[in-house]
Amino acid sequence: MRILYIAPGDNPHTWKWVGWFGRKYPGEIGLIPYEAPVPEGKLPGVEIIGKVIPIFRIGSLDSWMKVGAVKSIVRKFKPSLLHALWAYGSGTYGARSGHHPFLLSPWGTDITVYPSRSGFKGSIQRRLVLEALRKADKITATSRYLADAIHGLVPDRDMPDLFPYGVDTSVFDPNTVKDSLEFPWPDGAPSGPGALTVGFFKSLEHTYGPDILIQAIAVAAKELRQVRCVIAGSGELLEKLKRLAETLGVEKRICFPGRIPHEKMPAALKGIDIFAMPSRYEVFGVAALEASAMGKPVIASKKWGIVEVVEDGVTGILVVLDSAEVLAEQIVRLGRDPAARARMGAAGREFVKGNFEFEEIMQRADRYCAELIESHKP
User: 9 and 52 in contact (C-beta within 8 Å)?
Assistant: First the structure.
């Protein structure tokens, strides 16, 4: 099992997938980091090859020249399988390497956004994504929603094989995580045993709806005096979100601790009562599964791939898109019903263990890769 990956070097999903194979096959797994380097110590047992390949830019001669460099790396490494994570860029280099078997694993916007962009740049991006999809020997998808989107682009191919993001429930386990992460609450924030903490742990981008949550907290606070919210993440909206909280008079109820390292996420989730994911768009929603694994009820948008990770009324509540009032209503509902929170949290953990256990998904991925390699032996 000699696998060479082309994948974003700073992405937790890269670390989890490539890291698993690196632990099982030490010395046989390589990674060409795309877009960003791999943090020191993140992938023991994995050979990090070459310098970081910058984001693929259509108008950059250097990007096109990197195609030859990647092809040379592949030829020297002699993998039994080339696997690209992300269809555009990573997938472009993989497809143009000419190596087979070639496995392609799109993640989301590389399929749902890039191919639909307008203008000359958009048309080239679409052609490159389609090229990667057509040259791949096999394609995987993280959700049924994404699989349908991929199949819509290449309807002549079989449906992609489903490999969702998994959650390690031995790590995301409320019974073994001893201490909650301390959040930097503003002076005057609700505190003590009666405080109800709503958590949001995603990038601070319009797509994920942190502004909707702040508006919902302002509405919910009229009925829940002890409600507060931690909005953890980094992104372009940070200062705007802080100003919005001040405008709505809830700046003392909300803290912005910045991006939480993934290894600290179990402790962060232990410290909240409700997880909110009011995304305007979401291909999958692994953050909701991590919250469920930690026994937390999830309130999320009833749209896109989210419906695959939250069972409405069982592990959480699905709400209409873009409505702060409806989100606030459900925060109040769960805030007043600790028994419902406990019931949904327990059901959520069982749901993750039964459908999204990381180790089981990776064992299946191991067999899948072995079969793909075997099928291409002369």
Answer: yes
Contacts of 356 (CB under 8 A, 6+ apart): 164, 165, 166, 167, 289, 309
Q: In whole angstroms, give the CA distance from residue 112 to residue 106.
A: 10
CA dist 96 and 98 (Å) reads 5
CATH of domain 196-355: 3.40.50.2000
Average pLDDT, 10 consecutive residues per value, the chain (378 residues): 96 95 96 94 93 87 91 96 96 96 95 90 93 98 96 97 96 96 96 95 96 98 97 95 98 97 96 97 94 98 94 97 96 98 98 97 98 94
| Orientation angle between helical segments 119-135 and 90-97, nearest 10 degrees | 50
Same CATH fold assignment for domains 3-166+358-375 and 196-355: yes
C-alpha 275/C-alpha 117 separation (Å) is: 33
